[in-house]
Amino acid sequence: MAALSGTTQTYGVGSAGGNREDLEDVIWELDPLESYCLTNFDRVDANATLHEWEMDITVAPATNIQLEGNDGAFTSIVSPTRAGNYCQIFKKEFAVSGTQEVVAKAGRKSEVMRQVKKQMKELKNDIEYAIVRNQASSAGGASTGRSLGSIESWIASTDNAGNGVRATTTASASTAGFSSGTVAAPTDGSTTGALTEAQFKEALRLSWVNGGQDPVILVGSTQKIAISAFSGITTKTTQIPNSTSRATILASADMYVSEYGTHKIILHRHVRASVVLCLDPDYWAVAFLRKPFMEELAKTGDAQKRAIRAEGTLISRNQLASAKVAACA
Fold first, then answer.
1. Is 1 exposed, middle or buried (0-12, 13-18, 19+ CB in 10 A)?
2. Per-residue pLDDT for 290 more than 70?
3. In CATH, what class is 36-52+81-233+251-326?
4. C-alpha torsion sign, points 199, 205, 211, 216
5. DSSP classification of residue 164
6. What is the pLDDT of residue 13?
7. Contact of 189 with 173, CB cutoff 8 Å
8. What's the mean per-residue pLDDT of the chain?
9. Domain ranges in the chain?
10. pTM for the complete prediction?
C-alpha cells in the first residue's frame, strides 16, 4: 500500500527536520599488529648509534690422543668476531586542531589521546617489521637515515668456514650476511619453489650442527599452510564425538617435532611470504638507544602537535644458531 498523501517521513520531500543521528559511541579499529620479537627478545641498552658485540663458536671436535709426558704444542688463538648493527630512528607525528579537540566526538573524548595510543601501536608495528624483514644495515648520512640489518639479512648462506646456515628452494638465492661492518640485503634469485618438509628439516639441521636449537619458527600465512600440510610420520585420524560434543577439524600444525627438537610454529604478519625463519630467541636481542617515548612539539598555530619516537637496533648474538628457508613459492 502507498503512504497517505502528506505523510511526514524520514526521507525525501516533506521529511521531518531535526532527526538525531544514530552513531555508535565506539570506534571499531582493526589492528593487524605483530610484536613477537619486541616482546620476547632480550632488551639491552645501546650507548652509541653503532651498537657492537662479539661472537665466537667452538671448533669442531677431533681426535685428541696425547703422549705421556709430551710437551705442549700450542695452537693460535682465534679472536672473537666483532659485529655491530646501526640504530634506526623511528617516528610518528600528528597534529590535532584546537577545534577538533573540543567538539563533541563519537567513540573518544580526546582526539589527541586517541592518536597517541593508536600511533604508538603503529610505531611498535614498524619496529617489528624492520626486525623480521630483509633490510640492509646502513650508517646513513646527511641526507639518508641509518637503518638496522634485519633478521633475514643476518642469516647468511654460509659462515666463514663454508658451513651452510640456511636452506633454499633455488641456488640463485643468496645472503651475504655480516661483512666489513655492515649487513647486506639478501638476493632473492630469479626462481622460487614450493616449500618441502625436506628443505625445512635441512634448515633445522644446519643450525643444529652449529649449536642452535631453533625452538621458534616464524612464518607468514602462505608457508604456515605449507608446513601444516607436511605429512611427517603420523597418520591423520578423526575422533568420533559422543552425542554431547561437537566434531572438530584439525587442519593446522602449531608444533613440529624433528630430530633436532620441538619447534613452535608462530604465524607472523610481517615475515615475508617467501621465507621461513627458524630462530633460537636466546641469540637475538633488541637494543634501544632511545626507548619509545612521546613528546609535545612546539605550538606554532591552533593545533596540538605530538611526536612519538624510538631509536634502536637488532642484535644478532650469533646468527649461526638460527636458519631460514628462502625463495619459497
1. exposed
2. yes
3. alpha beta
4. positive
5. B
6. 56
7. yes
8. 87
9. 36-52+81-233+251-326
10. 0.87
